[in-house]
Amino acid sequence: MRSTKKMAAGALAAALGVSTLAACGGKDDTAKSDGGTKSKTVTLVSHDSFAASDAVLKEFTAQTGYTVKVLKSGDAGAALNQEILTKGSPRGDVFFGVDNTLLSRALDHGIFTPYEAKGLAAVPAAVQLDKGQHRVTPIDTGDICVNYDKKYFADKKLSPPSSFTDLIKPEYKNLLVTENAATSSPGLGFLLGTAAQFGDDGWQDYWKKLKDNGVKVVDGWEQAYNQDFSGSAGGKKAKGDRPLVVSYASSPPVEVLYAKPQPTEAPTGVATGTCFRQTEFAGLLKGAKNEAGGKALLDFLISKKFQEDMPLNMFVNPVVKDAKLPELFTKFGATVTETHDVAPEKISKNREQWVKSWSSLVLK
Amino acid sequence: MLKLDGVTVRFGERAALDAVDLEVAEHETVCVLGPSGSGKSTLLRVVAGLQPVDEGRVLLEGADQGGVPVHRRGVGLMFQDHQLFPQRDVAGNVSFGLRMRGVPRARQAERVEELLELVGLPGAGRRAVAALSGGEQQRVALARALAPSPRLLMLDEPLGQLDRTLRERLVVELRSLFGRLGTTVLAVTHDQGEAFALADRVVVMRDGRIAQTGTPLEVWQRPASEFVARFLGFENVVPGVVSGVVASTEWGAVPVPSGSAQGAVRLLIRPAGVRLLPAGEGLPCEVVSRTFRGNHVALRLRPRSGPVLEAECGVRDAAGVGEMVGVGFVGAEVVVLAG
Amino acid sequence: MRLGLMALPLAFFALFFAWPVAAIVGRGLRVDGVWHLGRIGEVITEPDIGHVLWFTTWQALASTALTLLIALPGAYVFARFDFPGRHLLRAVVTVPFVLPTVVVGTAFLALLGRGGLLDELWGVRLDTTVWAILLAHVFFNYAVVVRTVGGLWAQLDPRQEEAARVLGASRFAAWRTVTLPALGPAVAAAALMVFLFTFTSFGVVQILGGPTFSTLEVEIYRQTAELLDLPTAAVLTIVQFAAVGAVLAVHAWTVRRRESALKLVDPKQTARRPRGAGQWTLLAGVLAVIAVLILLPLGVLVARSLDTPDGYGFGYFRSLQSVGEGGTFLVPPLEAVWNSVQYALAATGIALVIGGLAAAALTRRGGRLVRGFDALLMLPLGVSAVTVGFGFLITLDRPPLDLRTSWILVPLAQALVGVPFVVRTMLPVLRAVDGRLREAAAVLGASPLRVWREVDLPLVRRALLIAAGFAFAVSLGEFGATVFIARPDRPTLPVAVARLLGRAGDLNYGQAMALSTILMVVCALSLLLLERVRTDRTGEF
């Protein structure tokens, strides 16, 4: 019996030893942030797509004295749901990454403390979806639109589609690939865009026609864009045979940015009449340990410095009016003037039902 | 029944079997005797078909076995460590070969009982093999090998792991069993006592070759070479020069049987041929050790020159350790070895 | 004695598995302090859910059968044949197991999809059919069978089969009647693992099956992570739990019937060069299957990682060293390699300690309690990563156990998956150790710990290494749990690959392929290294 205890103790020691070993070299500073009330660390919780330049985050530290610690967990939906589950005892101070399709859920669960960020005046009222209470602050927008393979349409001497109704025309038969609205956020955005265009009663009819016109549905953006779309770098390698894909308005500049040598023209274009606008928000979490730091961070997120850094990190558009877009966006990006949007409350009310009807209509 | 014709097996450079010719007649029990590494186990594996031959042929009842797979050869093999199947009980092991031959279930059960009876384990069918003693395992292994009535039964060190009394009893049992069943048996062992007790004919092997073949008596009485003699446990081997019926050796003059080969030879003097004489007569020797062997006493004697001698004498005649004795030799117990 | 050994594993599972899962299920089914068990009936009777359940079950059964059929000859070849490159190949077939599904899906499509090998040769396309899912499951789980079954097979005394041959059994009959029963526990363990993996399959089903095929796991993910419909997720978790529990119970029952001390020998004695046309054909057949099913998809990944716009070269690999023009990463991707290795080492350590103690405790044969524990260890394989991850959030949130933002949560979650491997790999071998050896050591004055170290350990060292290799590989490629656990920005390899694939652009795609290739190589090298650690002392006692 005694030796058993020794054995267990030894094993525990070994386990801890391994843990300590692995901790070496980790940039973990949880201990510091858990310290007193005047913490110098502010924690930003976000989804996996969050990115910011080191220099810009250092600038924040220089301005305010706070260091930013970023925690990422899963995609946008998973990250938000985790915040809802930990309501009252959050893991961080600020949450970034609620978009308009999820906004109502976040607000209904009351995970944010109202705070009117400094500089909000420079943000257009149209994207301030919680204007009355300022529980969330808009940070960026992005458009989900159909992209097209320029080469394909040039070779076929066919003009690329520009609107939803174009997509059900016979000349575009079997050309479009989109994502599962139940599991993919561009897939859902595209569905919502058609719902906005054709109304609560009309969108199903539209999708029936789209289906008859040979739309292909795959599960995620990665497969659609990198596998089936003929215009992307990945799709070319995979011999993709769909010249139309549901993606983002920022995808063409990204194709240019990550191509070597840089082409003079983007290989893909945007069907500007097929767009649904996504707006992403950030908010101060209820029960934040470092509220002052969190507020400073929210101010910073809509500062010109951060806003101008954002496009090349997350490939989204700034919300602040006077923030300059990088040349890459102005030169290779598309100008989307009109988007097909649905109010957050309406999305929240109908989302599940729409996705269900869409699934049985399109997938079965 | 079984015929090996120039069988050679090589493991890399080394020949485990080197052009071996061997015949086993119907109902005969042949025992292959040799030290470990002499190739005797390989011999069994070749006959069973577990080991392909590099040269030569194996014939069973006149049919060349080249290309005949193991399970079609109809031979039985009892492995050295039995290799009972631990997942099956005793009956499951014994009936295995019958199942493979598609014997009806009822007949299998009958035969299993019959064999367990035969090997002295009646009613043990349901026991787990892990729960058996060494002797019992051995009996089950034998029953398993016998169950399909193989035309040739091969035994690899059949009694190797058992204790002496059990071994002696089992040897006797086996011999009478084989006699009764008329089984043709090819066994290998490194124990000469076992071989002599079991076999009609003994084959002594050395380095993949056959050193001598003969009945136990022939081999015992006339070992063909120093190797065979020493392997059989004889130690009194000495070089000498034969002239007529006397050989001159380091031990002095030794009588040899008439008609022996002349010239430089090696002589074996069986312990029984070393006779103790009163001190002062014959070859003077000192008694080095004295071992009681039940019906006789084995003495080791150191002469003034030449190797130590081993002698066998009656309990009453034996001298004590340290005593000086004289030694004489009996011609009938002297063997002139070839080479 | 047994209780003492089991204390740590029990505490581990209670704290990091049972409690979080129970808490998240409770959160779903209990509203304002009242249990709403009626939800269970409502959800189960939905036709959509019924469809999902049916598909989940039958594809898992079919995948398991197919994997065994294809991989058992492989297990034999790796256990019994000595041929050049054997060790390398055994490491390589394990690589798929650690690759993130999103990467594998891409590679596998190159085999079965448009322009793939089958398409080019015969115009057959299997993508979006159930065959793609089944074959990908074979691709993933081939190594599970080869390693679990092959490990034991290599140590079975070949003379057992010879004994059967001499008694008149054909080669196949000898295998079926002697070897297969001896391998039984290992085959059952492998089948069980493959079943659990395929039953809870997520990425493969999504990518290769297209949106029309959906498993319970996918549904649980959607309900929890996307819709936050915790009641439905809770019911589905319970259903999955019940199904997995039932399978484990059947497994425990079948294993209990036959447990026998096997004669184990040094694996080095049993492997030899193939002989005769039959064996060469078998070897060639197995190698061909591996080439087509495993090497070809992996090769596509490597080819794509080298296929830069300026022709074939290492451009993508070179670009991994820098942060990159667009600032895709806050850390250079190569740092992700180091992160992954660190996490995997920690997870392997935890899994070995917990799994080793559990296996040692389970070896001391006991009653039903012990068997229950045996099954308990496998349950984490049958529970969705999202359930565990979300469970962590609402349980480990108070000091002293506020681990929610600690890095240790990642290896802990990975170890949950690693422990069953360790236990499953070691248990058959440990149980086959002759108990008399332990008694002999004890009589000679060895304490129980010493006995374990001097008798069991040398005999099971090989199994231990195999287990460690598996645990390490699993942790290295683990994606599900890692991605749900909030962590400071230290992306692991699979997370980095997923981020790169989530962006447009040639460089991102190329870098994703390059990182996947690195992941493959790191995994293959670690496994190879483990196999090199010689087990000369086996059977020393």
Give a brief outline of the structure.
Chain A is an alpha/beta fold. Chain A has helices at 2-23, 30-33, 54-64, 76-85, 103-108, 150-155, 185-212, 221-228, 233-237, 251-257, 291-301, 304-314, 327-332, 344-363, and strands spanning 41-46, 67-72, 94-99, 112-113, 137-149, 176-179, 216-218, 244-248, 268-285, 317-318. Helices cover 43% and strands 18% of the residues of chain A.
Kindly list the characteristics that best describe this protein.
heterotrimer, A: 364 residues, alpha/beta, 2 domains, 10 strands, globular, disordered N terminus, B: alpha+beta, Rossmann fold, OB fold (Dihydrolipoamide Acetyltransferase, E2P), five-stranded antiparallel beta sheet, 9 helices, 20 strands, elongated
* Count of discrete domains of chain C: 1
Strand elements of chain C, count: 5
* End-to-end gap of chain A: 62 Å
**Which regions of chain A contain 5 or more consecutive residues with pLDDT less than 50?**
1-37
Largest Cβ-defined interface: A-C, 87 and 86 residues
Q: Class by helix and strand content of chain C? A: mainly alpha
Low-confidence stretches of chain C: 534-541
Largest sheet of chain C: 2 strands, antiparallel
CATH topology of chain C: MetI-like fold
Radius of gyration of chain C: 23 Å
CATH superfamily of chain C: MetI-like
Q: Count helical runs of chain A.
A: 14
Mean pLDDT of chain C: 80
- What share of the residues of chain C lie within helices? over 70%
Global outline of chain C: globular
Oligomer: heterotrimer
| Proportion of residues in extended strands of chain A | 15-25%
Please give the CATH architecture of the largest domain in chain A: 3-Layer(aba) Sandwich
